[in-house]
């Protein structure tokens, strides 16, 4: 039999005990240890720091035909959070690990003639900072030990508005296209063209959205609408927003006046994101 175990180390109240619903530890002949989320090593992470990164972990095993054969879903605080065990027949598999903070678990899609197997998020459950790792595995009788580093697969767009929200507005919606809500389980890039939506209360600032780029350098088109009791008040189109995986695009300007004028974009990073690039879009009348 073939087993997969994932162990996460942390230094503050992280319960890493065994799960009673899993197979006996003695049956596992593959041990996978998650070592880091991008630049944050698990060995030095507190529970609070882990929760800043994610509160859901999903472990999915696909067979060589791209069919899901096993899946384990965990939430921060679960007994044994960070430890997944599988017992599988000998054969060739792909293990995919996803860390995120969406409202619930993603869906899993089998391989088709045009697309690899994938893991998908939806507008209803939301899009968040997301980390991913994938590894081809061959099950057999020898014990395999793996160390896995999860990498960020999303781009973030941050809107810092410089005009006033309409007085009657109680909510803001950002509808955007150009990225994806689905992760290719082999490449880690987006594998479908998604129409994504995020809602915000008027008190939220800045406004931040996430997407999974389908290639190294891509562009989003976003429509920012304000609403009162579900009725549309204003709608502003912002296009040609540059995005890149593991980068933050910051958009500053007037976004509630129904047009786009003097809006600048700067791709920046915090201490765990990638190198910055800058972009200025043309002014429109």
Please characterize this protein's 3D structure.
- The structure is a single chain.
- The chain has about 280 residues and is mainly β.
- It folds into two domains: about 1-150, Immunoglobulin-like, CATH 2.60.40.1120; about 155-280, Immunoglobulin-like, CATH 2.60.40.
- It is built from one helix and 21 strands.
- It has one helix at about 45-55; strands at about 1-10, 30-35, 40, 55-65, 70-75, 85-90, 90-100, 105-110, 120, 130-140, 145-150, 155-160, 170-175, 180-185, 195-200, 205-210, 215-230, 230-245, 250-255, 265-270, 275-280.
- Strands 1, 2, 3, 4, 5, 6, 7, 10 and 11 form a nine-stranded mixed β-sheet that branches. Strands 16-12-19-20-21 form a five-stranded mixed β-sheet, with no helix packed on it. It has a four-stranded antiparallel β-sheet with strand order 15-13-17-18, with no helix packed on it.
- It is elongated and about 65 Å long.
- Mean pLDDT is about 80; it is low at about 1-25 and about 280-285.
Q: How would you summarize what this structure contains?
A:
Helix content is 2%, strand content 49%.
Explain the layout of strands and helices:
Layout lengths: L1 E7 L21 E8 L2 E2 L5 H7 L2 E8 L4 E8 L9 E4 L2 E10 L6 E3 L8 E3 L10 E9 L4 E9 L2 E7 L9 E7 L4 E3 L10 E7 L5 E5 L5 E12 L2 E14 L3 E6 L10 E5 L8 E4 L5
Parallel strand pairs: 1-2, 2-11, 12-19
Antiparallel strand pairs: 1-6, 2-3, 4-5, 4-7, 7-10, 8-9, 9-14, 10-11, 12-16, 13-15, 13-17, 17-18, 19-20, 20-21
